[in-house]
Write a structure and sequence with these properties.
Blueprint lengths: L2 E5 L3 H13 L3 E5 L2 H10 L4 E5 L1 E2 L2 E2 H11 L4 E6 L4 H10 L1 E6 L4 H12 L7 H15 L4 H8 L3 H10 L5
Helix pairs in contact: 2-3, 6-7, 7-8
């Protein structure tokens, strides 16, 4: 069963989220603030975390950073009633995978947690390079000299790269 650390200072809201997540099949680890969350994490590293941004004893970002350091497999979703772009950026830099703004429905929270469980799609560097080279070459009408100039490569280097490009997948 997937465990979710729910860090929310509002007891009624925390209990409502806990009930919703438990009904969806998650094991809920409730915490009322930063200190509570750190204590819970000492006993069990959660698979996921739903963390309120503003807590009475600190910032939810502190919890996200702690989880990123001590439980790197844990994926965090930040929840805030005071969502700003700066706060979302800070949360993502700290290690959060999503940022939700209150009020939010239970179904939206569950969807965000399920999305957080999905492995990150990472495209190979070879495929990224292949796509970029071919798009520049196409934009140049197939002119290798112009494509090499735009890519900042020598013409011969571009020709070698074109010969070695991995096949399209």
């Amino acid at each position: 069963m997937t465990s979710v650390l729910v860090v929310e200072d509002d007891l009624v809201y925390r209990n409502a989220i806990a009930e919703t997540l438990a009904a969806a099949g998650f094991a809920v680890l409730p915490a009322g603030g930063v200190r509570d969350a750190l204590l819970v994490c000492q006993h069990q590293a959660p698979d996921l975390a739903l963390v309120d941004l503003r807590l009475p004893d600190g910032s939810g970002i502190d919890v996200v950073r702690h989880l990123a350091d001590t439980a790197p497999a844990c994926r965090s979703v930040v929840l805030s009633g005071h969502g700003t772009i700066a706060a979302a950026v800070e949360a993502m830099r700290a290690g959060a995978v999503d940022f939700l703004t209150k009020p939010v429905e239970g179904a939206e929270i569950i969807a965000a947690l399920h999305d957080a469980l999905e492995p990150l799609a990472v495209e190979s560097l070879d495929n990224v390079e292949r796509t970029h080279i071919l798009s520049v070459l196409q934009a140049c009408g197939g002119n290798i000299t112009e494509a090499a100039r735009r890519l900042g490569l020598y013409r011969r280097t571009l020709q070698r790269k074109l010969q070695k490009l991995p096949p399209a997948r």
